[in-house]
Amino acid sequence: MDHILNRPALGAWAAALALVLAAGPVAAQEILSRDRAATLFAMSRDQWNANARAAEAAGAATARITGDGVARMEILYADGAMFYVLPEYPTSPEGPDRIQVTITYPPTMSRMLDAETIAAMTAENRAEMAPDYTVSVDYESVGGGVAIFFVIGRAE
Q: What is the total count of domains within the chain?
């Protein structure tokens, strides 16, 4: 079974993150796309959990099951950057209502991420996801680095 972290798969989250980390933090807009969102929004909770377990079995990620029974996919990179994906299924196990994507940058990478840069990334992400999806973005300093929190929802 192909999981979405396989490079040739439609929702290649890990490949996108590799591009982000190689290109620098300004390229974080590569994480979010309508195609990737559509892939994840089409997955039932069971499909997502199987996908996360397959990614873990392949050594591409760690899958941690939350109290809600949903796998949070985590990728830790050698440079200290981390990437998390967590679909939320509060109303139906057939498809998520929202998808949380978190990227943490260690201090050495976060120096390039000021409020202006994050605002520009946010604008680009919202434009990429519109009109099908909404994107909210927040960020905070964490241990000298920066964590950027994306929440993707279906547009009403």
A: 1
Q: Are strands 62-65 and 71-76 parallel, antiparallel or unpaired?
A: antiparallel
Q: Is residue 6 included in any domain, yes or no?
A: no
pLDDT of 24 > 70? The answer is: no
Q: What angle do CA 41, 84, 81 make, to 5 degrees?
A: 145
Residue 42 pairs with which residues in a beta bridge? Answer: none
pLDDT digits (tens, 9 = 90+) for 57-81: 988 899 999 999 999 999 888 888 8
Q: Which residues are CB-contacts of 153 (< 8 A; sequence separation ≥ 6)?
A: 97, 98, 99, 133, 134, 135, 136
Is residue 73 assigned to a domain?
yes
Residue 69 DSSP one-character state: S
pTM of the predicted model, to two decimals?
0.79
Rg of the chain over CA atoms, in angstroms? 15
